[in-house]
């Protein structure tokens, strides 16, 4: 089963992100469906039933965190754009703590923690669209959606389909 840990977002924030996301509807960019918007904590990959059981039985509760949702950025950089994201604050320690718990279950430790919400993935970009994309990123670099309270983490199942991934919550630690 293909799984990841995520922080699920409330509907009002998803609606606000949807307005921003529409600006990035350029040829070659696959935006994330509104229902799939989330903060990825850790991608776990394909896991077997035993590993799934180990995760479900783990204590992945987190301390309440206030995070600011702000700024548009890119991975790996602004010259070679593969992912367009909105940033989140105050989550590095939370991610690190979860990573430590998962290390004990045999998962690799992350090299760094870059909490974000993926808006879209760039499959390809034509030269004329690249400048448009750079302008949109620059224009939205300081956008601010305000603060949200985060107090739960969810284990998500990801099923890949022709229309895109379908996510299902397996367990939520609150």
Automatic annotation (TrEMBL):
Top-level EC class as recorded in UniProt: hydrolase
Keyword annotations from UniProtKB, A to Z: Hydrolase
General function of this protein: Hydrolyzes RNA 2',3'-cyclic phosphodiester to an RNA 2'-phosphomonoester.
HAMAP family from the UniProt entry: RNA_CPDase
Renumbered ranges of motif HXTX 1: 38-41
Gene name of this polypeptide: thpR
Keyword Hydrolase listed: yes
Transmembrane segments: none
UniProt GO MF annotations: 2',3'-cyclic-nucleotide 3'-phosphodiesterase activity; RNA 2',3'-cyclic 3'-phosphodiesterase activity
NCBIfam families in the cross-refs: 2_5_ligase
Entry keyword Hydrolase: yes
Protein name, as recorded: RNA 2',3'-cyclic phosphodiesterase
Location of the active site: 38 (proton donor), 116 (proton acceptor)
SUPFAM superfamilies: LigT-like
Domain Phosphoesterase HXTX: 9-85, 90-167
Pfam families listed in its UniProt record: LigT_PEase (PF02834)
Family note: Belongs to the 2H phosphoesterase superfamily. ThpR family.
UniProt motif HXTX 2: location: 116-119
Documented EC number(s): 3.1.4.58
